[in-house]
Structures are given as C-alpha cells and as structure tokens.
Amino acid sequence: MIASGPEFRGKALTSGTACGAWIKLDEPLSFWGGVDADGRVIDVHHPQAGTSLTGAVVGMCSGRGSSSAAAVLAEQIRTGHSPAAVVMTEVDTILVVGALVAAELYEKHMPIVQVDESVFAQLAGRVTVRVDVAMTARLTTMGVP
Amino acid sequence: MTGTPHLTLTPDQQSSLDGRRGPATAMAMRLVCGVAEAAGAQRLRPIDSAHVDGCLYHGQAGLDLVEKFAELGGRVAVRTTLNVGSLDLLHPGMVRTGHETSAAAALMDAHVRLGCEPTWSCAPYQITHRPAFGTHVAWGESNAIAFVNSVLGARTGRYGDFMDIAAALTGLVPDTGLHRDHGRRADVVLDCGDLPGALLETDSAWAALGVVVGELAGTRVPALVGLPGNLEDGVTEDRLKALGAAAASAGGVALFHVVGVTPEAPTLTAVADALTPVVEVDLAHLRAARTQLTTAIGDTVDAVSLGTPHFSVREFAALATAIGAGPRFSPDVTVLVATSRAVLQEATRLGYVDIVEQAGARILTDTCTYVAPVLSENITTVMTNSGKWAWYAPGNLGVDVVLGDLHECVASARVGRVVRDDRLWT
Q1: Per residue in B312-356, pLDDT tens?
Q2: Å from A32 to nearest chain B CA?
Q3: What are the C-alpha distances in Å from A75 to residues A45, A70, B92, B398?
Q4: Which of B36, B142, B317, B363 is buried most, with the most CB atoms less than 10 Å from its CB?
Q5: Candidates A11, A79, A97; nearest CB to B31
Q6: Cβ–Cβ of A93/B58 closer than 8 Å?
Q7: Active-site annotation holder among A4, A66, A67, A118
Q8: CA distance linking residue B239 with residue B231, whole number of Å
Q9: Which residues make Cβ contacts (< 8 Å) with residue B264, sequence separation at least 6?
C-alpha cells in the first residue's frame, strides 16, 4: 500500500513539473567538478560519491564552489541526465540560471524550489513537484510509511 | 514563503526586456530578471565591467547559448574579459585534441564575436582588469570572484556561467547579496592568531588555510583576524589569491575579509559586530587540510602543476629564484606552469620564462591543467602548491595529489620524489 503524504508549499525559482525519488545531499555539492555528465556524484570529498542524481528530486541546503555549475546542469537537462527537480533551503542562483537557459534553448523545464527548513526535513520517498503561474510550488510525497 | 517583494524595472530596463535593444539583449534580460526574481532582488543595478567564465567548454548547451546570442546580433554592453577556455591557442600541441576540440574552439570564438576581450585567464585581476574599490561588476570564476570582492573591494555576486554573459550583454545585475552593504558584513570571525608565523611564510600554508576557511565558512562571509600581510608588498596579494581560490573550492566563499589587510576591513568592527560568532583556527586545522589535499600514498612524483589560478609575474620571479643555479628537473617529471598570455609576455621580457623553461618546465596559456587534457595519461601522482588544483584534480583527472610549497615542488621535480619539510607543520 502506497501512502500519500501531505502537500507542502515552496517558492518556485524555475517552472516545471517533476516527480522522482527524494535524495537529500548530506553536504553541499558543486555540479561542476562534483557531478559528471551522466549525473553521478564524482566529488571524492562528498559522502555520497557514486550516487546517481539523474531523475531524482535532489534536496540540497546550498550549492558549493565553482561558478561553472550552471553549464553542467544545463547540459545535463539537455541530455536528460539532470535531476528531475532540485529542492533547496538557500537560493543558489547558479543552478537557477542553468535551468533558465535550458528552458530558453530547449524548452526543457527542470523546477528548482526553495522551501523552509521545516518542509525540507519532511520530504521523503517519492516527491512530486508542481509549479503554478504565480511561481508557487506544491510538493507532495508518496511511499512514506 | 510569503511577502516576497517583486522586481521593479526602470522604463529603460523594461524596454530592453521588451526587445528595444534587439533580441539578444531581450533574451539576456529574461535570464537576468529570472535570477533577480529567484534571488528576491527588487531592482537591477548597472555594472562597470564583466569577466565571463562561459568560454570553457562544458557541453553543447553552453555553445548553443553563446551562438544563439551571436546569431541574434548580441554585443556586450560593458568591458568584458574572458576566463580560460578549453584550448591553448598559443601552444596548440599542449592540449590533446578530441571530439570536443572544434566545439571548444567555436565556443571561444563566439565569445570574441560578442565583443569580449580574448584574455583567456582566471586571474584577469593581475593583468589589466582591476576594478576600482566600491565599483559594481559581474564576474564569473570562483577564484576571481573571491579576489575582486575581497582584495580589490569591488562588488560582484557569485555569478556563474550564463549569468555572467547575460550581465555583460545587458550591463545589469540583480541588486542583491554582495552588491549591497549589508551583504558584505562578516557572518563569522575566524581567529588565526595562533598560527605559527614561520608556517605562514610558505605558500602551501595559505592554500591549506583557504580550504579550512572554505570548510568553516561555507557560503558565509568570513572575517579573518590575526594574519600578517600588507597589500602594498605584492606577496600578500598572491597569498590571498591562493587562499581565496581554495576557499571558493572547498566552500562557496565569494568574499572574505582579512582584518588590517583587505580594504573593507581596516578594523574588525568595520565588518563584524559583537555578536558575530568567533571560531579559532589552529595548526591542527591546517595540518588536516594539508593531509586532505595529499591523496598520494607513496612518494613518487610524476608531475608538478603550478599556476592555478594563473601564475602572476611575481610568482614567475619566485619560481625563477627557487630554480636558481640548481639542477634541471628530472626527465621523468612533467612540470607545467599555467599563466595568461599577458603575464607570459611580461615574464618573458623579464627573463623568468627562459630560466623556467631551461630548468625543464613547460608553459601553458589560455587554459588550465585541471580542466583540459594536458597531462599525459600515464601520470598518476601530481604535486602542486595550489589548494584549488589539489581539491579538484583527483575528481577531474583521476590523479593523486601532494600539496607542497613552491620550493618543495621544485625540489621534488628535481628528484621525482616527494620532498617536503614537515617541521613547520608539527
């Protein structure tokens, strides 16, 4: 039996609709130098090195490091290797611009959502993200006992 | 998430967004405004210059964007320098070519067509692009961002690929974060007063300190107290360049203050208040960072990489002095020095490049040894004095690294084994 959890709200930084397994990063991660073109974490200093982020709803408190992360993310969106969505507690505009460029060039939309820490802590299982025209994001969880 | 103020544009900015300055500027305005909305900015702010990091090839998307801007007739609205590309255009044999070579060259060319200056350097601040104190700019490349904010006291956000070229095309950035006085206050004080003075005479100590600062500060603004230095002497500038590059790699540091040294922090009270938390930084922190930046198990050295960020003229002088009349580097060790064209020209004129090349080193321009395939594939262990290089190379290149100071790098390159003096670190 799949349980459906409550609905949470956040501020959408980019638009789109997505659904995927929730992967919460235990430490900040730079997409440049930290994630390869196939969406796998390659930062040897990161506790989740080896994990694939492709198709997941990735939770991160903040980005880290290189200013080239936008290009890596846009390319992953273009090739279909990006996360399904990114949920963060602190705005990372570097990732935002990567998603905006992918939307401009390819009409592929990856939602990036900012939520309060209380919401962030409750996300689990499979997470669905929907963004309305007022850029309000609605997040629902499934598969949480 | 309620009550977020909305972005308000001036009539002139609105007309840019609506296409009055052409479709390329309008598209760039959509990106700038999207980022401004995400960041919660209420207005846009004009900038004096830009430094664009998008010329390093990361895939088709980056090329598609810049070629789209060029095809739409885009031109940069402010002075714009360029960061490293993926190729050494001056020394074509240095970077191995592959299936992405032509795309990488096209990306570099498309930026020049938009009106950017072909500086190809991650240290434009040591060439001619040194923004004045208090001016607003839009810079990409994490080490350059940290330097321009911290050492020069100009103001830039942490702009990444795409945002930097969008800002250059529009001449505008969101008025938020580090552009505002409030965003430049220190969030944490790092007390470095107990670090041994003799250790701080080595460049690797500043690289290790950068990693510690990055790990302790994350994306916050740290104020460092208890450090020696004077920006008039030149040495301090290169040390803070190394520190900032490592702090931006290990954390997300875009601005740091060094009290009594950097221009916005003549005193601690100028940047922090009584409630700002204080963290002690001691020798154990630096030792741990040096250990973290040394992944090699054995003591064989196959290569030495210098010049991340790009070597300055002063760093060339220091290397030439360290080489002195000593023996050449071991033929088994590849020694690479990365720099900008402009610094290469000046260092050649001053005779440093001859000394460095005669010792057996090779010079790389326009790009960098950890973003381009320069090192031969059978190289497994690389020594460097750069915290940034040591941080990224294991992941990027799959090599093991050893952090050492400039003199240790020279000594190790001569014998092909790690030569390090641990006395200062214990």
Answers
A1: 999 999 999 999 999 999 999 999 999 999 999 999 999 999 999
A2: 9
A3: 23, 9, 27, 22
A4: B142
A5: A97
A6: no
A7: A66
A8: 10
A9: B153, B184, B257, B270, B271
